[in-house]
Design brief:
The protein has five helices and seven strands, in the order E-E-H-E-E-H-E-H-E-H-E-H. It is an alpha/beta fold. The chain has a seven-stranded mixed beta sheet with strand order 1-3-4-2-5-6-7, with helices on both faces. Bound molecules: guanosine-5'-triphosphate and magnesium ion.
Length: about 200
């Protein structure tokens, strides 16, 4: 019987499998679906992965932006792989590394066969820009879905949250009802995110 991911509990078997510079370094094992976690440097990608799978140190979290510089693959179950993508917009890397980052990202996003969705993380305190919008365009171009998630919602007082969600949603051209919120610190949003992810697991 295949393992079914219906609830966060199924993520308890999550394990780190590989860091790779190029997508081909981690073969896309059919019939697994793959969901990538994308966002600006320091937005909270690695923290969110740890929260989603209920493990403190599965993905490396750092106060230093740009910590995750490779494609990091995590096997969640027999059906799902998560890929922690390097953060966009880290200024301190040398130009040669930036070029490599861009090549790696475009190769991954354009040709990764099992990629069914990209979870696009956006900091609650920051207005999304061209890069986030281009990720959404990329999704329709290459045929994967977008799961928009606002991170660090604990940084926004409760009375302001609705407004913040509306503003971010409007900026990326999606209805506010489609944008999820999360806090890896205050442990908010996990169920909703798993629900959204489940829709992109092909069975
Ligand atoms: P890179 O790999 O460098 O691109 O960063 P990342 O997007 O993986 O971010 P990471 O998870 O390493 O978190 C960056 C910083 O934000 C760390 O100091 C985290 O503790 C903090 N952080 C992450 N999630 C949350 C959250 O939900 N709330 C708050 N308040 N801080 C958070
Ligand atoms: Mg990271």
């Amino acid at each position: 019987m295949t393992e079914q991911i219906k609830t966060p509990v199924a993520a308890f078997s999550a394990k780190f499998v590989k860091s790779a510079i190029w997508p081909k370094d981690y073969p896309d094992i059919s019939p697994r679906s793959e969901i990538a976690i994308a966002g600006r440097s320091n937005v909270g990608k690695s923290s969110l992965i740890n929260y989603l799978v209920n493990q403190k140190q599965l993905a490396r979290v750092s106060n230093t932006p740009g910590r995750t510089q490779l494609l990091n693959f995590f096997e969640i179950s027999q059906e799902l792989v998560l890929c922690d993508l390097p953060g966009f917009g880290y200024a301190k890397v040398p130009p040669s590394m930036k070029d490599q980052w861009e090549e790696m990202m475009s190769l991954y996003l354009s040709s990764r066969k099992p990629l069914t969705a990209v979870m696009l993380l956006m900091d609650s305190r920051r207005e999304p820009g061209e890069w986030e919008i281009s990720m959404i365009t990329c999704g329709s171009q290459f045929g994967w879905g977008i799961i928009p998630v606002i991170t660090k919602i604990d940084k926004i007082v409760k009375s302001q949250r609705k407004l913040v969600i509306q503003k971010i949603a409007q900026k990326i051209g999606l209805p506010a009802s489609k944008v999820l919120v999360s806090s890896s610190d205050a442990l908010e949003g996990r169920e909703e995110i798993w629900e959204a992810m489940n829709r992109f697991v092909i069975r």
